[in-house]
Fold each of these.
Amino acid sequence: MEHFSVVQTLCRIGLEGADPRFRKQVERLRDRLRGGDDEKSASALDRLLSGAQSEHTLTPSAVEVSRLLVTGDELTSNVHPPADRETSVPLAEIILQPGMGKPSPIYSETLSLALGAMLGEWQRVDALRAMGVEPSRSCLIYGPPGTGKTLTAFWLAAQLGLPVVNARIDGLVSSFLGTTARNIANLFAFANRYRCMLVLDEFDAVAKMRDDPHEVGEIKRVVNTLLQNLDARAGTGLTVAITNHDALLDTAVWRRFENHIRIDMPDERTRVVMLSTFLNPLPVEEDVVRTLAFVVGKRSGSFLKNFADALKRVLAIGGVQVSAASILGAARAIVPRMAIAGAETSPAALFVEDEAKFVGALLASGLGIRQASIAKMLNLSQSTISRYAQDYAA
Ligand SMILES: Nc1ncnc2c1ncn2[C@@H]1O[C@H](COP(=O)(O)OP(=O)(O)OP(=O)(O)O)[C@@H](O)[C@H]1O
Ligand SMILES: [Mg+2]
């Protein structure tokens, strides 16, 4: 066959996609070649077809993996979430592709390991069953605001190839107190019917209700409905609840979850990785990123994302060439706007108000940022930096 090497390459690339329709067409081509007495080309395609098959049986796709974990009807864009009967407000949002348009979360090493272990369990249901155990199916993610909890729930779903049924419990509770119990039951019935990950965001709203002196009877009923529905879902669906206020949850609720993942404020190393990722595609040297991380201090991923975006805006509008000095200059323009305030001696305050003390603090921080880098970033001469360093040491 003419140009067969090109056709062969096309087939190899196409078969990597594991689309059954593509496979069918390659089989048709093989049969035609065989019928036309081109046995050599036909066998080459045979080899490609059987190679692709064994590869795909060895590495099942995320969707195949999650079919072992969660069954149910397929969610499509034609399926609508349940709504409150009186107000018609939807009780949840359906996200068919929870990973789309979302950045990959960045974690400390410890957190990465914890999440990886849980995900690994969810991805190896066959191995667990061979051992006679069932996988865990629920997880409570908790920690301070803006640390990536919601992002993590969506990322987990994306890794498993599962769509998300996302319910914000605060909305469900506060707007429809009179009908909350029924709404919760409807929400769970919906999630149990479909192959999905049920995400219960702002989960502490239920716990907070207990402090409400009104509607005591109603509140009890709501909490009980929630606990019963969580129990009923335990052996089948996959449920991830999220809260900022873990202290508000009582042990009865806490116990309902098999995994508890705390997402804390990022440590220094993680903050540096976050900032340099968020500053992409700006070419930013390591010393600059570490200095910026020092300036903003112990902040959440969400804060760092906003900070990096603000920095990019200042640089874009200023129309200046991106350099260590212009990045630090832009940071100086936004730090006062970003509510970084705090002690007068905080690195952020010194950065804006007292250059000499800032340089001293930076040198004393133990981050190991070289004097030459500091000089470049702050547009200072090497001798000024040495003087600041001496003043600081004195
Ligand atoms: N660990 C992280 N890795 C990458 N990006 C992060 C991380 N944490 C926060 N972000 C950024 O901040 C945004 C907000 O994060 P997210 O909504 O997941 O926080 P949260 O913990 O759910 O906050 P809240 O408690 O306020 O609901 C994300 O979309 C992302 O841009
Ligand atoms: Mg959130």
Amino acid sequence: MTTVDLPMITRGGTDGVPTLADGEKQTGKDFTSDQEVRWCPGCGDYAVLKAVQSFLPDLGLRRENIVFVSGIGCSSRFPYYLDTYGMHSIHGRAPSIATGIATARGDLSVWVVTGDGDALSIGGNHLIHALRRNVNMTILLFNNRIYGLTKGQYSPTSEAGKVTKSTPMGSVDHPFNPVSLALGAEATFVARTIDSDRKHLTSVLAAAAAHRGTSLVEIYQNCPIFNDGAFDAIKNPDTKQDAIIP
Ligand SMILES: Cc1ncc(C[n+]2csc(CCOP(=O)(O)OP(=O)(O)O)c2C)c(N)n1
Ligand code: SF4
Ligand SMILES: [Mg+2]
């Protein structure tokens, strides 16, 4: 039997993407678009947006070589608010569109923004195959454990027994753990972080961007309108010590 030695991956996630000229500097402002941000007051998406806008200058990449692709959902409005290239694409299909972009254009830093419904219901198949193919991109999965945009139906990450308008007697199915799902697809980088911890979130973004291959970052994100307090156990100072292993 013959075997083929695969080449060692020695390149970083952003290698090959044009960088700023010497002395050129960017700030979070350079990554802030002129679009009015349309999320509900108190939505966790704001904190993630701010963290990403503040983090992107650290990459030192040219803005025109960065692209954010999203699916459909509240979280998927993300590309409008970033002054990079972007695409608010098709429900569940962002990983596939991003796969095409990353495959054709090695000079781009490719990011996906998706929600728990977008990534794990309609887009479940696209997500697992993107992870399996290990194309060079970073997937930010905003998990609020609910469909926000369509006004509060239960999602594949809602806890069993969830009472919503679409499950008035409580949901009967068992939720996905996105991290386990990604590991099952043999993803090469998997992480979980939370909207309210800017420092941790930023460090995870940096590690994910530095990884060559598909990085999956699950971000716990509070939806104060349809699923408020979903992550209180890990936010509350009285309980978080028992709920988190850093
Ligand atoms: C083909 C198709 N099916 C269903 C919908 C309705 N729809 C829009 S967004 C969404 C789910 C959004 O939930 P999630 O991905 O968790 O994003 P969130 O709004 O919570 O950020 C659904 C079912 C649609 N737009 N297109
Ligand atoms: S419905 Fe929930 S997830 Fe959507 S913008 Fe409002 S608070 Fe955010
Ligand atoms: Mg959601």
